[in-house]
Amino acid sequence: MSDLAQTVREVEALLFAAASPLTVEDLAGRLPEGADVPAALAELGRQYEARGVVLANVAGGWRFQTAEDLAWLMTEERDEPRRLSKAAQETLAIIAYHQPVTRAEIEAVRGVQASKGTLDVLLELGLVRMRGRRRTPGRPVTYGTTDAFLEHYGLATLGDLPGMAEMKAAGLLSLDLPADFAVPNPEAPALDEDPLEGEAPEFHVDFLGEDEPVR
Q: For residue range 94-115, what is the model confidence (pLDDT) as tens digits?
């Protein structure tokens, strides 16, 4: 058996057993020194491209998942995902497309004052994280999306986010966002914010609160 064929088998075994996507670095760290992980992934992807389970690049890592055209077979065997409220969907969309963003900026775009639990729910679900503090009076916290957000929506990077027109056509967004909203570059540092120093989020989830108009 060739070295590449053996590496393909090893990568296949690791991905099959993994609970979450594995990066090239994760795989290389578990394999013998000199193993050609990119070539093994390419070959593994070729072998699985027409099968019921395919190799997918998600959130910067690799995993096996059901082929898209067979997803309907799983509907009776999987738990229904928790549905976000309209306010939470709009808030998540604003954060995804305009991060890093503060709560006040989110409210300004939506035109309503967010209820107490909207951001807390997104933080609790792991779709959003606190990134840092804006270098402005009051030092407000800024928010951004997480790898769990990318994994949940099947995205490799934020650059794969659909356009606004696509989101509205799919019924995922009814909010009219400004025309200058663009997909952020996840690699670009935010020069107007400082990292959080040992601060942990506190959740105060209130599902009964209603959004109020900003006055």
A: 898 888 889 988 888 888 876 6
pLDDT tens-digit readout, 49-66: 989 999 999 988 999 999
- Domain extent, residue 153, equals 86-208
CB–CB of 144/189 below 8 Å? no
Cβ neighbours of residue 3 closer than 8 Å, sequence gap 6 or more: 35, 36
90 and 163 share a domain? yes
Confirm if 30 and 14 have CB atoms less than 8 A apart. Answer: yes
Q: Are residues 16 and 98 in the same domain?
A: no
- 106 in a domain, yes or no? yes
Q: Percent of the chain, pLDDT > 90?
A: 33
Which string of DSSP letters, residue by residue, matches 148-199?
HHHHHTT-SSGGGPPPHHHHHHTTS------TT-----TTSPPTTEEE-SS-
Q: Are 114 and 206 in contact (CB under 8 A)?
A: no
Residues 151 and 96 in one domain: yes
Residues in the chain: 215
Pull the structure tokens for residue 6.
């053996």
The domain tally of the chain equals 2
Q: CA 21, CA 71: separation in Å to the nearest integer?
A: 19
pLDDT of residue 168: 62
Residue 63 belongs to a domain with what CATH number? 1.10.10.10
